[in-house]
Each structure stands twice: as structure tokens, then as C-alpha cells.
Design goal:
- This protein has about 700 residues and is α+β, with helices and mostly antiparallel strands.
- It has five domains: about 75-175; about 180-270, no CATH class; about 275-325; about 345-420; about 435-690, Rossmann fold (3-Layer(aba) Sandwich).
- Helix content is about 20%, strand content about 35%.
- It has 13 helices and 39 strands.
- Strands 32-33-35-34-36-37-38-39 form an eight-stranded mixed sheet, with helices on both faces. Strands 5, 6, 7, 8 and 9 form a five-stranded antiparallel sheet that branches.
- The longest helix is centred in the last third of the chain and has 19 residues, at about 670-690.
- It is globular and about 65 Å long.
- It starts with about 30 loop residues before the first helix and ends with a helix.
- About 50% of the residues are buried.
Length: about 700
């Protein structure tokens, strides 16, 4: 099958999305002329920022940091083992390894190598990037390993025997594509993949799900569900645990809406009757519903952001008795939840600080109790160790505190610290504070500032402002790690803005800044920049911005809408050409967030936040560094290429571009590439702001 790398919907004569566009040739991701341009730009950018002693020293320092053996090995439990994927200097592409829970708590765990990706690459002469595995419950002997050529979203799946530590000869194999796979039993999979013409949606994802039985040709596999080409993708999966096994299929209309069905006996499809923007899961005999908009059921009103439970069988039969598990407050929102044998553990965020609560069904009712109280400006993440017990692993970290890993058992023991990540920099001289800016429409926008404790408010501090503001994704406190070395220790101030479009204050916070209201995200971000200047933390000459993906679109709009506010811009794996974004890679899947530029009424507002179309000659723009990856099959590298080329054609100075080959949407496939990226960005920022 043909990999779906960097798919492009073709242009047609008279297409307004191609009119007056002199840089369409850069959309040919692997075209000779385009790659020659990329090589020339990489050479120019490297010459400007990677030749000095400061870069060499910082690059090595960051690489040593990323490769150090004392790093915390994050694990997930499957059966009797804790599994970890590990990359270091000797194993740049990584090792899948495992140890027992008892072995893991030792200072030097006895790791057993399960799969060596570097050895696999050498043996097969391929540039594989490990993308995880999907294991078969309950014994976890078989799994499907995902391997991507170059690190993009498209991957191949190979059956692997975890007990024998080898690929299964003549086992299940799905060629490279953007696929969805799920185990049904040891001889059966649900598979949705690229099966040739007509099998993929306009977004580049599968539209047909099949039930594939071992040792049968895939093209004879039974189709269990299919969706339209204009939908985002199809879903088909088995959900098991707690003694219950259920199969589901679904139609994912777009990023936020879907329609789901229980796949009952003889493949009868019974609709899960919930709002199309709600999400659901199962927990033993319960259906768990998470709302993204308000909902009235049998005369009762439930607000957006609520978490509800119903008896699964009763609900399917039409009895809509709902149990509220969580109701959001003004600043309190549900982030995520995980299931153990007897309870759900929910992560609740209050003004961007985490708290954990236990939700337990007892005699048909649910109880709620606190597991871990919130700590100032910290993030708590919890995962269960098994559906067969109440054990859990808890990770706590903040901007200045490296991750601490705890293990606990609900109702029997308090969480116990079992691992502590080492500090990457001296945090004692820094402090975290939260501030609020006021956006154009009067909305208060929180932001975190990480800076020296005795920060002089003289307007001279090099300051880096980071943001995202899209898809309901929250920017919560995370350990700065290498950023502490590459920015704080060089004398910089680091700022994270919690702007609308994100999920920091629930669904309304997100939905208030999408489509025709998307400019609110950019007004929020600009208000934070203005507040930093008003507080005399910095001035425009010393203020830089950084963002990637949707955050790349954010800082692209800072570049074109507010050039006077910033001293430089770092724009990574970005969307920028919002007239053609639906035709590039997975772009069509984001129409619910941005709008459809092919519809004239929607293009009227989309073009207001399309940086590629809001460049003008004669405007003084701050220096900009675009960073992307050839193998990014989610956000096409053409966005960054075309923007840089157009700016240069307008005679705009200080426009730099770098494109990594590997890494997909992360733009880095290993620690060496990550260190290079961080050091390059730091040098660019410091040269312009320091």
C-alpha cells in the first residue's frame, strides 16, 4: 500500500486557493526543486546560528542531559511487567525493555530488552521510529508494534510475541499507512487502513473498518462499518475490562463530533444516544459520558464539562437515569480520568493546578473523595496498573520540580514515592508566579511566569512567551528541563499563556475561540505580551514568542498582526497557509476548529488569521525562525516553506528556515535531533533578544 505521507489534494484550473501563489512548487514535499531549496536554507540557517562556541557548548550540554542514565524511566504495566521505551547515546532509536514492579523500585532496575529498534534498523536497512505497541488482554503475550519510517503518523503494524521477544512469523501485518487497529481476540483484529482508492477520507484517514481473521487475505475481511469521504475517520474497537467485553464502531465526523454504536450480536448496531460532541467510555456495568456542551435529559440540565454515569444496559434499553460524577465550577474543570478495578480516578484542575479525586460506585450510587490535594502550580497525572486491582502510578511535577513517581493502592495505602527524576538545572534561584492579563473584550487571561527570584522590573529582561490556544488542549505546569538550561540559565524569563482556544477552563474556554471567533486566541496572547511590557518585565525588543503546530499558527499571527510587540518569532511545524490547509496532509480534519476556506462566507473570517495572506511589503517584521520536518504528515512542511519563501521574496530581512528530515510532527526522531533543535532555537532567541 502507498504510504500517506504529505498527501495533497490536487489543484484545478481557476482554483482561488492557487491564484497568485508563486510557491505551490514547495508543496511537492519530496520534489527535487523543493528539496534543493530546503538544503540551501538549512545551510544558511546553520551557518548563522550553529557555528559558534556557544552553540556547540549548549548542544552538547543538552544532549548529555537528554541521554543521562539517571533520567526517570516512565513505565506502563502490562501483565506482570512494567514496560519502558528508552533512548540514549548507545541506543539513539531506542530499546523497548521491561522489568517487574519489584525490580523497578531498585536503584538499578534489572531491565530485560524486548525489542532493539537500532538493531532492527541496521538489520533491515530502514529508518524506523518506534511509535508504541497495542497489547492483547488479558495475558499480554501478543502485541502489535507500530513502526514509522521517519517518524510521521503513518506507520506499519507488526505482530510481536512479548513472551518470546520476537516478531510472529506470518503474523498480522498492516503496511505503512495512517491506520487504526484493535485486538478482538488472539486470531482477530479490527483494522481500518489504506486499502486503495476510495478507502480513505479527504482528511487522509481510513473510512472503512474491517474484522480481519488470522491467515485470511485482508481484502476478504468483513466490513463492519464505513463512513463518508467527508467524515474525518472511522472507528472500530473492543473495550474490555472488569469482566465486561463490548465492541464499538463509530463515525468521527470531525475533531469534536461523532456518532457511535454498540456492535451487538450479528453485528447489529445500537446507537449510543449521547450528544454528538460528547465523549464516552465504559467502566464495568457503567457508561461514562463526558459533555462538551450543555444537555437536558428528562427535564434535568447538565452543563458543559460535566461527567455523568449511567447503567450501560439500562441506558441502551432507553432508561436515561444519570448520575453526576463531576460538575465544573467557575475555575474548576475535569482534565482526564482513568479506571481501576473498583473506581475511577479523576484529575481535576482548579485555576490550572491539579487535584485527584476518587469516584466509586457503591450500591448503585457514586461516592467522591479526595486522593491528592492540589499543590500550587503543579500537574498530577495518574494511570492504573491494571483493571484487575486498585493499584495506580502517580506522577507529579511542576515548572521547577522534576517528576516524582508514586505508587499506591486505593483504600489501603497512601501513595509512596518510588522514583525521583534528577534536577536538570538549579531551580533554587527561580520562582513561579501566576498573573492575569486583560484581553481586548475584557476577559482575564492567566499566565505563568518563571524567572529569577529577584527579577529587576526594568524592561530589559530577555523574555520568551509560549502558547498554544487550540483544540481544547491545556498548557499545564510541566518541568522545564532543558529549557532551564537553554533559556533560564542564560538569563531569560519564561512565560506560558493559558489563552482561549485551550481547555484550561473547560469546553466554553475552547469553543469561545474557534472558527469566526479564532481571533480571540490571538488577542489573548497579545494581551499577555502587553501585560509583560506594562509590568516592565520586558520590552518589545527583548520579547520573543515560540509555538508549534496550532501554536505555530498562533505565533504566525503574532508576526503578521502584532509585529511591533516582538523582538523575534520561533514558528515550529506550523499551519500558515489557511486557504490551502484543508488540501495539505491531515488539514481537512481541522475544519471544525478553523472553518472551511473553500466556502466563501467562511473564508471571509479564515483569511483574517491566515499569516500567509497577511504579509505585506513595507512592513517591518521581527526576525523569524521557521522549523519543520520533511516527514511531518500531519501538518505539511509546505506551510513553513511557503511562508519563509514568500517573506524572502518580499525583501523581508532576517527570515530563517530549517527543516529536519525525520521526526514527523515532533520534528525530532532521537535525542541528538532534539538537542540540536533546542540549541538552535536558543541561539536564535538569544542573538535577537539577549
Amino acid at each position: 500500500m502507498t504510504p500517506l505521507f504529505n498527501s495533497i489534494r490536487p489543484a484545478f484550473a481557476g482554483d482561488p486557493a492557487t491564484r497568485d501563489d508563486d510557491f505551490l512548487w514547495l508543496e511537492e514535499v519530496n520534489g527535487r526543486r523543493a528539496l534543493e531549496w530546503v538544503h540551501a536554507e538549512n545551510t544558511r540557517t546553520s551557518a548563522a546560528f550553529t557555528q559558534g562556541d556557544d552553540f556547540s557548548r549548549l548542544n552538547q550540554q543538552l544532549l548529555d542531559l537528554l541521554n543521562k542514565d539517571s533520567r526517570l524511566a516512565q513505565v506502563a504495566q502490562y501483565g506482570d511487567y512494567y514496560y519502558n521505551f528508552w533512548q540514549d547515546k548507545q541506543n539513539p532509536r531506542g530499546l523497548l525493555r521491561r522489568t517487574t514492579p519489584a525490580g523497578y523500585v531498585k536503584d538499578a532496575p534489572p531491565w530485560e530488552i524486548v525489542l532493539d529498534i537500532d538493531a532492527l534498523c541496521a538489520r533491515e536497512g530502514k529508518n524506523w521510529v518506534y511509535q508504541g505497541f497495542t497489547a492483547l488482554e488479558p495475558d499480554y503475550h501478543l502485541c502489535l508494534v507500530a513502526l514509522s519510517p521517519g517518524g510521521g503518523d503513518a506507520a506499519e503494524y507488526r505482530e510481536f510475541d512479548l513472551a518470546a521477544k520476537q516478531f510472529v512469523k506470518s503474523g498480522f501485518y498492516v503496511p505503512v499507512a495512517k491506520s487504526h487497529v484493535s485486538w478482538v481476540d488472539k486470531d482477530t483484529l479490527f483494522v481500518a487502513t489504506d486499502a486503495g482508492p476510495g478507502s480513505m477520507t479527504h482528511s487522509g484517514y481510513p473510512r472503512i473498518a474491517r474484522r480481519w481473521r488470522r491467515n485470511t487475505p485482508f481484502d476478504t475481511a468483513q466490513i463492519v462499518y464505513q463512513v463518508a469521504e467527508d467524515d474525518m475517520t472511522v472507528a472500530a474497537y473492543r473495550d474490555s475490562g472488569g469482566g465486561f467485553t463490548r465492541d464499538f464502531v463509530g463515525r468521527i465526523k470531525d475533531f469534536f463530533h461523532g456518532e457511535y454504536f454498540l456492535l451487538a450480536q450479528h453485528d447489529k448496531k445500537i446507537k449510543i444516544d449521547i450528544p454528538d460532541d460528547a465523549r464516552f467510555s465504559t467502566f464495568r456495568e457503567w457508561l461514562i459520558i463526558r459533555l462538551n456542551s450543555s444537555w437536558v435529559v428528562e427535564g434535568k440540565h447538565y452543563v458543559a464539562g460535566s461527567l455523568l454515569a449511567a447503567n450501560f444496559d439500562d441506558y441502551i434499553a432507553g432508561k436515561k437515569t444519570l448520575h453526576p460524577l463531576f460538575i465544573p465550577g467557575e475555575s474548576t474543570v475535569l482534565q482526564r480520568y482513568t479506571r481501576t478495578r473498583d473506581s475511577l480516578i479523576a484529575s481535576v484542575m482548579n485555576n490550572v493546578a491539579s487535584e485527584l479525586v476518587i469516584l466509586t460506585p457503591k450500591a448503585g450510587r457514586w461516592t467522591r473523595e479526595s486522593l491528592v490535594k492540589p499543590d500550587n502550580f503543579s500537574t498530577l497525572m495518574v494511570g492504573s496498573t491494571s483493571d484487575e486491582n486498585n493499584g495506580y502510578l502517580l506522577t507529579s511535577n511542576s515548572y521547577l520540580q522534576p517528576a516524582s513517581l508514586y505508587r499506591g493502592e486505593l483504600f489501603t495505602a497512601e501513595p509512596t514515592l518510588i522514583k525521583q527524576a534528577p534536577a536538570d538545572f538549579d531551580a533554587d534561584k527561580y520562582a513561579v508566579s501566576q498573573h492575569f492579563a486583560v484581553s481586548k473584550d475584557g476577559t482575564r487571561i492567566p499566565y505563568f511566569q518563571i524567572a529569577r527570584k529577584e527579577l529587576p522590573l526594568n524592561g530589559k529582561n530577555p523574555t520568551l512567551l509560549y502558547g498554544y490556544g487550540g483544540f481544547g488542549i491545556s498548557l499545564t505546569p510541566q518541568y522545564l528541563g532543558g529549557k532551564g538550561i537553554s533559556w533560564l540559565d542564560r538569563g531569560g524569563v519564561y512565560v506560558v499563556a493559558n489563552i482561549r482556544g485551550g481547555g484550561e477552563f473547560g469546553p466554553d474556554w475552547h469553543q469561545s475561540a474557534i472558527q469566526q471567533h479564532k481571533l480571540r486566541s490571538y488577542e489573548d496572547f497579545a494581551s499577555v505580551a502587553q501585560d509583560l511590557i506594562a509590568r516592565r518585565v520586558t520590552t518589545p525588543a527583548h520579547l520573543g514568542v515560540e509555538g508549534g503546530s496550532n501554536g505555530g499558527l498562533l505565533v504566525g499571527n503574532m508576526l503578521t498582526r502584532y509585529p511591533q510587540l516582538f523582538g523575534c518569532v520561533v514558528c515550529e511545524v506550523p499551519l500558515l497557509d489557511m486557504q490551502r490547509y484543508t488540501r495539505l496532509s491531515a488539514g481537512a480534519s481541522w475544519i471544525a476548529e478553523y472553518g472551511d476556506p473553500d466556502k466563501p462566507d467562511q473564508w471571509q473570517y479564515v483569511k483574517t488569521f491566515s499569516p500567509y495572506h497577511n504579509l505585506h511589503s513595507g512592513v517591518t517584521y521581527p526576525p523569524v525562525l521557521f522549523y519543520t520536518a520533511t516527514s511531518d504528515d500531519r501538518v505539511n512542511p509546505a506551510h513553513a516553506r511557503k511562508m519563509a519563501a514568500r517573506m524572502q521574496s518580499l525583501g523581508i530581512e532576517n527570515v530563517y528556515f530549517y527543516e529536519n528530515t525525520d521526526g514527523g510532527h515532533s520534528a525530532s526522531a532521537d535525542k541528538k535531533q532534539s538537542a540540536f533543535h533546542s540549541a538552535l532555537v536558543s541561539e536564535f532567541l538569544w542573538r535577537n533578544l539577549g
